Every structure is written in C-alpha cells, then in structure tokens.
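@here heads up, posting the sequence + SMILES for the 2-acetamido-2-deoxy-beta-D-glucopyranose run so it's all in one place. Ping me if the SMILES looks off, I pulled it from an old spreadsheet.
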Amino acid sequence: MALLWLAVFLTPASCLVRPDQDGHHSKLQVLSADPKSPIENFRMQATSKTLFWDVTGNVSNIECSKNSNYPTKAQNNHSCKFHVLPKCELSNYTVTVTTASGDSFSTWMQYPVQEGSPGAAARGLKCRVHDVDFLTCSWEVGTEAPGDAQYHAYLEAVTSEKTWECPHYGANELGTRIQCQFKDISAFANVQYRFLVNGTSTESRIPCSEFITYLSHIEALSPPNMTVSCNKSHSVMEWKMSSRFYNMFQYELEIQKGTDRPYIHREDSKTSLVLSNPGAYTVRIRARVRFYQSSPWSASQSVVCHQEEDADLHFWLTPLVIALVTLLFVGCALFLCKRYSVLQKLFPPIPHMKDPLSDNMHSERMLAWESDRAGQEECPVAKVHVLEEK
Ligand SMILES: *[C@@H]1O[C@H](CO)[C@@H](O)[C@H](O)[C@H]1NC(C)=O
Ligand SMILES: *[C@@H]1O[C@H](CO)[C@@H](O)[C@H](O)[C@H]1NC(C)=O
Ligand SMILES: *[C@@H]1O[C@H](CO)[C@@H](O)[C@H](O)[C@H]1NC(C)=O
Ligand SMILES: *[C@@H]1O[C@H](CO)[C@@H](O)[C@H](O)[C@H]1NC(C)=O
Ligand SMILES: *[C@@H]1O[C@H](CO)[C@@H](O)[C@H](O)[C@H]1NC(C)=O
Ligand SMILES: *[C@@H]1O[C@H](CO)[C@@H](O)[C@H](O)[C@H]1NC(C)=O
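bot reply: prediction finished. Complex structure tokens:
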C-alpha cells in the first residue's frame, strides 16, 4: 500500500488543468495510480454532469464513485452520469478499472475548481420549510470573510437548473446577510433543490456554499391546530393538520385526567376524538409522519367538562351552601343581639334604678347611656328594643 501511495505521488501522470473557456470540460488534479492504467483523457462535462474517459486495451469492469460512496457501473465503458454535481463543495470522482487480466487501476479527480479563500465562504448553511409555505435558510459569515463581503443567495432546481434569487434577506448588525426567506413556496414541487450562497467583495473572491436537498426532507411540521368542546356528557377534540409536502399522519394525544398519569392516545389519519364523562383534563397533540419525523407538541389545553351527575350536584349544592351560610350569619347576628337585649332586660341598667337616689347620678347615668349607645351601633336589631324601652 505504501509503495502504491509513493507511486501515486511520484508519477508524472498527475496534472492540474483549469476548465476550458466554455467551462464544459475540466480536468484537474487527475492522478493515476499507474501509468499503465487503461484510462486516458479523464474529464468532467459540467453541463451534462458526466465524467468521460477513453479506454485503451481490454477491460472487464469499470465503476465510478463520488467520494468513495455508492460505486456504479460505467455506461458503455467510457462515461458516468451523476444526478447531482455539487457546484461549491469539492468532491472526489473516482473511476476504477479492472482489466481483462485482473489488474485494478483507479483514477480520480476533484471537482469543482476551488476559487478564493475557503474561509470566506458562508458557513453552516442550513434550510428548513416551516409554517407550511415558508422556506428559511441561514448561515454564518465566513471566519476569513473580508470586511466588505456581502452574500447572495439563490435557489435552484437541480434538474431544470431554473434559478430564483432570494426575495427576502436577513442581515446581522453589520449589514452582512445571514438569512434568506421565501415566504410562499406553494408552487415549488418536491424535487431536489440546490440552495447556493456566494459572495462579493472588493478584496478577494468568495467561494460559494451549497445545500442540496428535497424540500420535503427539510419540512419542519407544525403541531395540529386543535379545538376542544364539551357538553354535559362528552368532550370532542377536533384538529387540523397543515403541511406542504405530507398528507398522511399519525396523531398522538397526551391526555391527563386529574392527578392520573398522562397517557398517549394514537389516531391514524382520523382527526377527532370523543371522550365520555372526562371531567377536567389537559390535552396536547402532535403529528407524526410515520418512520420519519414528528411535529413538536402543541400547547397544553386545560378542559373542564362537568359530568352530568357532577353538574346536577353542582346545581343543587351551590344554592344550598349559600343558603346555609346565610342562615348561619343571620342566626349568629340574631343570637348576639338577642343575647344583648335579653341581658338588658334581665339586668336593666343600674343607673336607672339608682336614678332617684344617687347624688352623682348624672355622671353614672351618662356612662350607662354611653354603653347603651355603643350597643345600639353594633347591633341594629337591638336598637329596636332599646327604643321600645324608652
Ligand atoms: C481483447 O480481448 C479479446 C478477447 O478476449 C482478444 O481477442 C483481444 O486480443 C484482446 N485485445 C487486447 C488489446 O488485449
Ligand atoms: C479520491 O478517492 C480515491 C479512491 O476513492 C482515493 O484514493 C484518493 O485519495 C481520493 N482523493 C482525495 C483528494 O481524497
Ligand atoms: C465494456 O467492456 C466489457 C469488458 O471488456 C465488454 O464486454 C463490453 O462489451 C464493453 N461495453 C461496451 C459498451 O463497450
Ligand atoms: C452567484 O451564483 C449565481 C447563481 O449561480 C450566479 O448567477 C452569480 O453570478 C454568482 N455570483 C458570483 C459573484 O459568483
Ligand atoms: C386554528 O383554527 C382556528 C379555528 O378553526 C383558527 O381561527 C386559527 O386561525 C387556526 N390557527 C392556526 C395557527 O392555524
Ligand atoms: C354531547 O356530545 C356528544 C358527542 O358529540 C353527543 O353524542 C351527545 O349526544 C351530546 N350530548 C348532549 C346532552 O348534548
């Protein structure tokens, strides 16, 4: 192996060729493990996303791979077509030939050509479809981006290469764009798209960054919109699910009654659930695309549905309690006041009896009068008695 590697780096077969003027063919960093390799004139045609070569001699098998993944058999022994050709990310395209005599040779190239400082490119580009029709992508400013760098974002259908420029940018505090939003993607099919961010600067070239995906793969589901209603005996939960790319859902409802442990109820495709005599409970819901992903939980809803018996009890109980409490108060008041007046009757104020006898009757009478008055003010019922006495 070590010898082979040495051979790789010592062979004069390696060359670096820039793409030709029309950009159709590029041959760069082509390394052949052996000058006896039957592969010659190795080249990438960007417009057709096809790798071509010429074969010299008899071969038994030829395979192509990108970044050493998923080897596929060559077409007619002289080309491999790729479904997606990254425009920004460097990939390693390898052709492995097995000759009729059983020897194996690999030839590879890196594509595309890297321009500018890689550290100036937008970093951590990620996108998601959310709230049904929104597509939002965000990225970070490259660590080596010049101060005047500005980013430009594009959405491009991989197959048709139709391109849309970003309609709404979001920028950081320095005015450098770090986000792009498409507010209505309802007309976009679920095909593969390339989200590409390149940049401009007066100082240096800014390489592009890309994110290639099917829009359905990046859809973040929103929780279903649920409404709950109650009558005396039943509670009805109904919900609506909205999604741009999915229409088959499994629903999970987490229901908790009183102090019971919450339980999960699952519904396949049905969008309602009826509980009988549920009393008070809380419920939240989420949607799941089977084997794939689920939405976050909805906010918990607290529902108070009175069961029929409870409602009847409640109907009678409330006035009964009010009546009892009222009675109690009235009773107390009557008792207190009655007791006062009875005391007065049993032990009429001494000053009255002393009245004709005492010399200092005046002051004592005044005192008694004062206490009398205090009693009246506290208890209006007693006042009647006092007045009657007078
Ligand atoms: C290729 O293989 C065929 C049949 O296997 C043989 O007749 C022919 O001579 C071979 N050609 C070369 C260049 O080895
Ligand atoms: C490209 O892939 C080939 C084989 O898959 C490997 O030998 C070679 O080192 C790779 N080149 C780079 C630059 O990674
Ligand atoms: C590719 O090579 C194999 C093995 O030599 C041969 O049998 C086959 O006919 C070739 N295919 C084409 C299309 O040339
Ligand atoms: C950025 O990419 C778009 C779309 O591929 C292209 O039209 C534009 O010329 C590029 N701009 C720069 C500065 O490379
Ligand atoms: C949820 O449904 C209600 C009633 O159907 C509607 O008024 C509301 O706008 C919906 N909310 C969302 C986020 O869809
Ligand atoms: C309460 O709602 C349930 C479910 O919709 C229904 O079957 C039932 O007849 C209703 N009961 C009353 C008393 O309205």
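MO: Residues 308-346 form the longest helix (39 residues).
MO: One more: Residues 68, 92, 94, 106, 108, 110 surround 2-acetamido-2-deoxy-beta-D-glucopyranose (ligand 2) (CB under 6 Å).
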